[in-house]
Design a protein that fits this description.
heterodimer, A: 160 residues, alpha+beta, Glutaredoxin, 2 domains, four-stranded mixed sheet, elongated, B: 508 residues, alpha/beta, Rossmann fold, Ubiquitin-like (UB roll), five-stranded mixed sheet, 43% helix
Chain lengths: 160, 508
């Protein structure tokens, strides 16, 4: 993830290359945005104009698409992203208390990042782990039956 | 010695990877030749990680396993405290009618040869031998209805696309399974992806579409990974491509990943998202069947609808239609979730009473406290109270009881649930996820949260206001997000009035 943003020219080259890689797709915008975010960890503002030009749309349209979706970030996240499920099935299994506990342990609210940059806390609405909740997604790793002890282990490993 | 360990994300979330590693290590230490095969899950999630060992009598289970159980399992300790006996003989398995999920938990999801050995591709071969119109008729005759929630007859949708004239048509699989309490799509994509792929190819041959897309939510990283691999395997084997199984007919498939918007589970919003736009809902008409992806005729079907097509084409329309109740034909994968003792997936013919599912199959709550409410059909589904437990599980039957079956997820709550809080959450969720196109949803959901807060603060006058707001949202919203959010809100209010009055009393 998050490679260094050395120079604007470098960014232009890399984002243009990503656009070219996806040019053969029907409706390439989401795959391009995902690829840019995979490269930089977020969508750099300077990338929008390049994506717009490569796809024959306005910068406003790219911004409109990007900002519609919860996944796309305009700033880098913490080193580890911890998503805690807030949906009904997890609530039935104690997700609200778990979320409160995570917020207080980290000293952040939803979407917040710890001051040391280790952890970003985000809500997620269903991971499909509805019979073994509360559930969490730690980067790409699923965790079920999350209690306080498991949460402590997750946060400790992430260096929060 | 063959040992099976699930790779399903629910099993992984409970430690299946660590158990698989421990089994490999234990086998090495014992000097035994052990083949560890990763499978989907059988759906008995309270037993996960569920390890199965092949014996002459069949596969015997151990669960829920810890890495520390590995050595004993390798030694073949049949009297191990976690030994369950033959997995196929467990009551949860024996009571099911597994048609769509027949291979899930049984085979390695990426082993195409094993897929074929278990009946896979038979339906596709039968479809290739039939005329496209006959395939459409077959699906219509089976009585299959959209399993995503709307319950629209799949065959009728296919016929519309079949009859449309266009240079290009599409099959789009809605794998944006965002409803809380549902995981059937995820389970089949992780446990038997070729079934979905086969169903999509059959759909393509039937309606004359040569290109398909799976729109898969980003919250399912494991499913994304397996579907991508499965598509590659199917391409290599000539199941997908320019010449499907040597038929001379083409079908290409691409997996597309969503970006965390719940509303993209709505079909027109999904199509906009697939085209690279904001996931804003489109007004209907035109129907996607006539003007869908890029304005072309498009079949948009849920994962389970498509994944059920192969078994219909394999065993026949009548075979499938003989299961079920009234106009709800065939089987439905119930997803039992929330605060339950026995949670998981249970595929059965339509018609089981709600109470039997909750009390008998699910075994009541995990907490041991009485069941207070069951939300059926995801965040847009109504809550049911125990006095409604005689409602049989079917589309019309749930509609008649003021609810919906949706994607057949059931979320069970014990008596600690605060139903005012749940109603507020439904409105809050709608506000967060609204696409913004129509006013009743965009503004109504925000006002809904505020109105429920007024009720919570003791203002009883806000109750008729909430009712009125719900009527407006129900009648005036463009899609099910704004239109159905009133279901959980109003059912919570009508069934559990005490939860909406408690704060008032406290304030007086």
């Amino acid at each position: 993830m998050s490679a260094d943003l050395s120079t604007p020219a470098d960014l232009a080259d890399r984002v243009s290359a990503i656009c070219a890689d996806h040019a053969h797709l029907e409706g390439p915008m989401l795959p391009i945005l995902h690829a840019v975010q995979a490269e930089y960890g977020y969508i750099p503002e300077a990338a929008l104009q390049i994506i717009a030009k490569a796809n024959g749309v306005t910068r406003a349209e790219v911004h409109g698409t990007m900002s519609f979706y919860h996944d796309f970030r305009t700033q880098p996240a913490g080193k580890t992203v911890v998503k805690i499920c807030r949906a009904e099935a997890c609530q039935a299994q104690g997700a609200n208390a778990l979320a409160d506990s995570a917020k207080s342990k980290l000293g952040v609210d939803w979407h917040g990042t710890t001051p040391n940059g280790a952890v970003t806390l985000e809500p997620v609405y269903c991971l499909g782990l509805c019979a073994c909740g509360p559930a969490a997604l730690v980067d790409d790793k699923v965790v079920g039956l999350v209690d306080d002890a498991k949460l402590d282990a997750i946060l400790a490993e992430a260096g929060a | 010695m063959k040992i099976y360990v699930p790779l399903d994300s629910a099993a992984k979330a409970l430690g299946a990877d660590n158990v698989a590693d421990a089994l490999a290590t234990a086998a090495k230490e014992a000097g035994k030749d052990v083949e560890i095969i990763r499978t989907g899950t059988r759906g008995m999630l309270w037993l996960e990680p569920l390890v199965e060992v092949e014996t002459d009598a069949g596969r015997t289970g151990f669960g829920p396993c810890l890495p520390s159980d590995a050595a004993a399992i390798i030694e073949g300790a049949a009297n191990h405290p976690k030994a369950l006996g033959l997995v196929d003989d467990l009551p949860w398995m024996k009571r099911q009618t597994r048609l769509t999920f027949q291979r899930v938990g049984v085979i390695d999801p990426l082993d195409l040869a094993d897929y074929e050995a278990h009946g896979g591709l038979t339906g596709l071969r039968n479809a290739i031998a039939m005329s496209p119109a006959d395939v459409v008729q077959h699906v219509t005759d089976s009585g299959l209805r959209g399993r995503g929630g709307a319950g629209f007859p799949t065959g009728i949708k296919w016929k519309t696309v079949h009859d449309a004239e266009a240079p290009q048509k599409y099959i789009v699989c809605n794998a944006d399974e965002g409803d809380s309490g549902t995981f059937a799509d995820r389970m089949i994509m992780e446990g038997d992806p070729f079934t979905l792929i086969e169903g999509m190819i059959i759909a393509g041959l039937a309606v004359g579409a040569t290109k398909g897309y799976i729109y898969l939510r980003s919250e399912y990283p494991d499913a994304i990974n397996i579907i991508n691999q499965a598509i590659a395997v199917a391409e290599k084997a000539g199941v997908l491509g320019d010449d499907v199984l040597g038929s001379g007919r083409a079908f290409h498939l691409e997996n597309r990943v969503g970006a965390g918007a719940y509303v993209c589970g709505e079909e027109t919003s999904l199509l906009n998202s697939l085209e690279g736009k904001r996931g804003v809902v489109r007004a209907k008409p035109p129907l996607p069947a006539l003007e869908g992806f890029l304005g072309r005729p498009t079949v948009v079907n849920n994962v389970i609808s498509l994944a059920t097509v192969p078994v219909i084409m394999e065993k026949g329309a009548q075979y499938y239609a003989d299961f079920g109740l009234g106009r709800s034909k065939g089987t439905i994968p119930l997803q039992i979730a929330g605060n339950v003792k026995f949670g998981g997936l249970f595929e059965t013919a339509f018609g089981l009473p709600l109470g039997e599912i909750v009390n008998d199959l699910a075994g009541g709550t995990r907490s041991g406290a009485p069941v207070k409410a069951v939300q059926v059909g995801g965040p847009l589904g109504a809550y049911f109270a125990p006095h409604q437990f005689d409602t049989p599980f079917g589309y019309e039957e749930f509609d008649g009881a003021g609810g919906l079956i949706g994607h057949a997820g059931l979320t069970i709550f014990d008596d600690s649930a605060d139903m005012l809080g749940m109603a507020r959450f439904a409105m809050e969720f709608c506000a967060v996820e609204s696409c913004g196109k129509c006013t009743p949803c965009r503004i109504g959901a925000v006002r809904g949260v505020e109105t429920i807060d007024r009720i919570a603060a003791g203002d009883a006058d806000a109750i008729p206001l909430l009712t009125d707001l719900c009527d407006t949202m129900k009648d005036g919203s463009l899609c099910a997000l704004g239109g159905f959010t009133p279901y959980p809100v109003m059912s919570a209010l009508t069934l559990f009035p005490d939860d909406f009055a408690a704060q008032k009393k406290a304030a007086e």
